[in-house]
Task: inverse folding
């Protein structure tokens, strides 16, 4: 092969490479204009549309755009399974589980309790375990319990409670204000 044919071959190869690069940039620009900027960036970085390895510009734009849209994170397989399971079964709540366990142990001699707090919507804990928010009705087995309530703004109250057989009680706690930050600090 002569020198001139080699140089023509190289010139043709460079020309083809320039056309391929221009086509890839044009496709990336189309994706940018028709979908999210994230899709265009993914197209440029990963080359799915440019190499023909994807489902087309619209499919890639939809996939990448939905996964990379602002304020959301890409969905993982575990998250998808969790969402699917959440449709079929109720969400696990430890307070509900603790309350059900205490009520199941209560038996036929259970005392009936009504919990109230000022302010309302306080988390009720019995012997350190959360059982729900005020106002709350529940049954407990006779015995001695430590009742604590924590309000929505860190207000707090506690009381020791001794219950008898088949007793009915209303427990209302006026919660004390939560911890306050000092107005000033003195350095020595």
Result:
């Amino acid at each position: 092969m002569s020198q001139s044919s080699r140089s023509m071959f190289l010139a043709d190869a460079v020309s083809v490479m320039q056309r391929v690069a221009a086509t890839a940039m044009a496709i990336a620009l189309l994706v940018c204009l028709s979908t999210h900027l994230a899709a265009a960036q993914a197209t440029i970085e990963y080359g799915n549309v440019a190499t023909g390895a994807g489902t087309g510009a619209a499919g890639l734009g939809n996939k990448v755009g939905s996964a990379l849209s602002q304020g959301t994170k890409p969905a993982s397989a575990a998250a998808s399974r969790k969402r699917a399971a959440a449709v079929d079964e109720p969400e696990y709540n430890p307070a509900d589980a603790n309350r059900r366990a205490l009520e199941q142990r209560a038996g036929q001699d259970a005392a009936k309790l009504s919990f109230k707090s000022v302010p309302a919507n306080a988390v009720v804990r019995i012997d350190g375990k959360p059982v729900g928010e005020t106002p709350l009705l529940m049954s407990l087995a006779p015995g001695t319990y430590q009742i604590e309530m924590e309000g929505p703004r860190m207000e707090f109250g506690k009381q020791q409670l001794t219950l008898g057989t088949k007793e009915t009680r209303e427990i209302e706690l006026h919660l004390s204000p939560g911890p306050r930050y000092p107005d000033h600090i003195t350095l020595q």
Remarks:
- Strands lie at 111-118, 123-126, 129-133, 136-140, 143-150, 156-163, 168-174.
- Confidence is low (pLDDT under 50) at residues 49-57.
- The radius of gyration is 33 Å.
